[in-house]
Sequence to fold (340 residues):
Amino acid sequence: MKTPAAAGGEVVVREAVAEDARIDAFVANHPEATPFHLTAWTRAVERGCGPRGRFLVAERAGDIVGYLPLSEMRSPLFGAALVSAGFAVDGGVLGEGVEPLAAAARAIGYPAVELRGGPVPAGWTVDEDTYLGFVRPLAEDEGAELLAVPRKQRAEVRKALSADLEVVTGGLALADEHYRVYAESVRNLGTPVFPRSLFRSVLEMMDADILTVRHQGRAVASVLSLYFGGTVFPYWGGGVAAARHLRANDRMYFALMTHARGRGCTHFDFGRSKTGTGPAAFKKNWGFLGTPLRYAKWSDGPVREVNPQNPKYAMMVRSWKKLPLPVANLVGPWISRGLG
Fold:
């Protein structure tokens, strides 16, 4: 597919095959890139959950000037769609060629295409009301970081720092412990857990690690974080029921700020939360300002809807919270593979 360019010649869009290093070089040098644009993210999703990855590039005179990663989502519960990026909070069109990249995505033949972040193609449905993103710079040291937290939350962090809690960091050696904590956390929220293989694939293929908080030798809170472009992204985190009164989550996120600073990070991306929810309020209490995230959809028919706040899922969420944890962990990965 070709389109006239404003300057420098024609833009050609094609599907890239086995060109990961070339694409990642473009991503690494683009100021609006996220870790979800890296080919490793889509490859990890493919290996860990099954959805096939597709990579569209826009080129001018042989150079990549635009890019769109896609995951093929198919689910008997949630329908089929191409998602950019699968299981991510970002990853839409990066760079130039928005319209031809969008047209090429539609031409693949799925009934819907979803773009998370990036420019919006003309005529697509836009949602800027559902999700907020939370990012701010890290302070220069631990003391300054504590002062950067608003007073009420700072008092909670101080209590967490004085509590009998142990913090450990690592990679695959902590994966099983992290999964146990995360699985219990999302079950308590009424959400199916992702497959264990997804977490392991991300740890193996990306710049990522785990930080876990233990109380009396038992993990009570844990987070798997991504690192990209000087920013830490605490992505899959949670705590067991005891974490709240132990203030383990407060200890976890403050410890992650210190850990990330030691790794050379300058920014902390607290991820997305739905507008008006408890998680969004929690992040605001830490001094993060919510910024609306812009998502776009095209569909040939009814729009795919996977938001758990949709009223039609309310009974499912309530029922899921009551499932025995072994049952939730057995059935959850099968369901969550189709969420994307």
